[in-house]
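Q: I have 153 residues here and want to know how they pack in 3D. Can you give me a structure?
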Amino acid sequence: MRAILVIITTLLTLPVMAEPPKGYPFQSFDKAMQQAQTENKLLFVYFGRYGCGYCEKTNKEAFSDKKIRESYRKKYVLAYVDAESGKRLRLPSGERVTEREVGTRYNAFVTPVFTFMTAKGQPLLRLVGVQRIVDLREADKKVQQTLNKVDKP
């Protein structure tokens, strides 16, 4: 009986990770920032958490679209942040933070939150809650239009 309690206690204390949508090259925030800076690309950051039903709904309904997957893979460096995780990251600046601190910094107090940002971490557009295919397409369109306005004199 004692052995069973030890096993159960151990399993309950293991960190549980939230899951980004399958088929996307999501990576940790620090690695994504570094890649975005190296490649001069924008970031698309998905703030989720374990057990988030709205995250799962968005994963199944919006991120299952092949056109969204292809477009986002091509245009953005994708980062996934578990907004409740204590996992430690080292940002390109050298700063050490947890994923939870990144979530707090970007006001991801509810999940899911999707933030388009520059490689330096400056937010461009933020979406909160369940997203549909049309929402992700429109958000991409807005970000691209914003870039076009900035690029033109």
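Q: Anything worth noting?
A: The chain has a mean pLDDT of 88. The first helix runs from residue 2 to 13.
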